[in-house]
Amino acid sequence: MTCTATEGPAAECPYRGGRRVKALEWHDFDGRGAKASAFLLVSYLIVQWSDGQFELSVSVPGHSSSFDGARFHPTLEAAKAAAQANYEARILACVEPPTVAEAARVLLDPVRALLEWDAARKYPIPYRVRDPLIRALAEADRR
């Protein structure tokens, strides 16, 4: 699941673009609520009140339950989506974006394969594309 929140703490997460966070696994309480384990002993709890609203909270053993976003939601699905967005924001806030060098390393093997393929072709890659790739590979190999 890709973090796509447009409001709340997840929307403010600077590293959410392109990062994926595993979806919470929910255990439903016959449509009247649900529980999902987040990390360690922390769980997201959703309980339906008599007025039909679904309250979302974060449960930590030994502490009172709380939630730092909107607590009440009109549907169980809306409460689950809010919990997922909060969960993603907490995780993604701890992730550093890759450096340019780390991102470039991901491309090294495909670029090498492309250049090897190019050397055996009758119609090679134009030099304006090939030569910068060769220079980039040489620089990466020096590091």
Offer a concise description of the structure.
37% of the residues lie in helices and 17% in strands.
Architecture overview:
Helices cover 37% and strands 17% of the residues. It has helices at residues 76-92, 100-119, 127-142, and strands at 26-28, 33-39, 42-48, 54-59, 72-73. A 5-stranded antiparallel beta sheet has the order 1-2-3-4-5, covered by helices on one side. The mean pLDDT is 78.
Low-confidence stretches: none
H/I helix tally: 3
Biggest sheet statistics = 5 strands, antiparallel
Strand order of the largest sheet: 1-2-3-4-5
Structural class: alpha+beta
- In whole angstroms, the N-to-C terminal distance is 34 Å
Radius of gyration of CA atoms, rounded to a whole number: 23 Å
What number is the mean pLDDT? 78
* Quaternary organization: single chain
Approximate shape: elongated
Q: What fraction of the residues are assigned to beta strands by DSSP?
A: 15-25%
Please provide the ordered H/E string of secondary-structure elements: EEEEEHHH
Helix content: 25-40%
DSSP strand tally: 5
